[in-house]
Design a protein that fits this description.
heterodimer; A: 199 residues; alpha+beta; 6-stranded mixed beta sheet; globular; B: 129 residues
């Protein structure tokens, strides 16, 4: 009975997390402690809105915290959840408010977009907001996550994207290396490589 | 301008990896260690022995990888992130059939004493049409 309760709580938490991430996708997310589900810190002076996270924590209740153990030389024990949560968050922001992505990167972050190399949050933000389309919709088909060096998480996403309401999806692959933030809970995107997979 | 070291490492690795894969898959063993992690079409495998067991038991004898793009970044732990896209042709397929498209991500970790790199992370996915 305990197991099925834990399963239901976990499922509920996953659903609520997806909803919470969607709701707060245009504002800053913070991570919470003590029985709450961990989400991402978006830096860069954005408003921090924790109100929906309180609802989430009430639902999760006694669920053990999805907590990263120890310091930066420990492996992320919940790397699968981190990877899936990140992917959901990343593409949700990308598809609704691309300018909000900048907060996921730092000065040392690197993006390679279809072979073009860009470094630093500002330049990356500039690149992503200047991509030649108004609207885009990403559909993620697969997410693979592995623990990476330095307490990071390697996340590999494959899927389809449709630009400006086009009926013809384009296939893409994208790999991220997420690294723990210093001094606060959460992760930032250190490496990001995007490629279209042409037919 | 000279290519940065991480680019050289990444490209050299990719050439070596697929050359070895396509001619003598068992020899890939030396690239993996006990901590290596491999995801093959969603199946998670850890450790050199298990990884080589998986690679040598894939359901084809002959394969040829054709790399179409390589992207490299320096990453944590003095590692190199290598992201490869390409095509692969498996034995027995008609020459006029479109090749299978794939993407693969590696994180290479330095060996002690600058002796080279080993594969810490390896994720492989076919990109279905």
């Amino acid at each position: 009975k305990g197991d099925s309760m834990a399963t239901r709580l976990h499922l509920a938490a996953s659903i609520m997390l997806s909803l919470a991430l969607h709701v707060v996708s245009t504002s800053s997310l913070s991570s919470c402690e003590g029985g709450h589900v961990r989400v991402f810190s978006c830096l860069g002076g954005q408003r921090r809105d924790k109100s929906c996270l309180k609802d989430l924590s009430a639902l999760v209740g006694e669920q053990p915290t999805l907590r990263l153990r120890g310091g930066s030389d420990q492996q992320a024990s919940n790397f699968e959840e981190i990877g899936k949560a990140f992917v959901s968050h990343y593409y949700s922001i990308f598809d609704s408010n691309r300018a909000g992505l900048q907060g996921l990167y730092q000065d040392m972050s690197m993006l390679t977009f279809e072979g073009e190399k860009i470094q630093g949050a500002a330049a990356i933000g500039q690149k992503l907001t200047s991509l030649p389309f108004q609207t885009v919709k990403h559909e993620v088909v697969t997410v693979d996550s592995q623990p990476a060096a330095g307490g990071g998480v390697l996340v590999f996403a494959c899927g389809n994207l449709k630009v400006d309401g086009s009926e013809n999806p384009m296939k893409f692959s994208q790999v991220f290396c997420l690294m723990p933030l210093q001094g606060v809970q959460g992760y930032f995107c250190y490496n990001d490589v995007f490629r279209l997979n042409y037919g | 301008m000279a290519e940065p070291p991480f680019e050289q490492v990444g490209k050299a690795f990719v050439q070596h990896y697929y050359n070895t894969f396509d001619t003598n898959r068992a020899a890939l063993a030396s690239l993996y260690q006990d901590q290596s992690m491999f995801s093959w079409e969603g199946e998670k495998i850890q450790g050199q022995a298990q990884i080589i067991q998986k690679l040598t038991s894939l359901p084809f004898q002959q394969v040829a990888h054709q790399v179409t793009s390589i992207d490299c970044h320096p990453t944590a732990g003095d590692g190199v992130l290598v992201f490869v896209c390409g095509n692969l042709k498996v034995e027995g397929e008609a020459a006029d059939r479109p090749p299978l498209k794939y993407s693969q991500s590696f994180v290479l970790s330095p060996l002690p004493g600058g002796a080279g790199y080993w594969v810490l992370n390896d994720i492989f996915r076919l990109n279905y049409g």
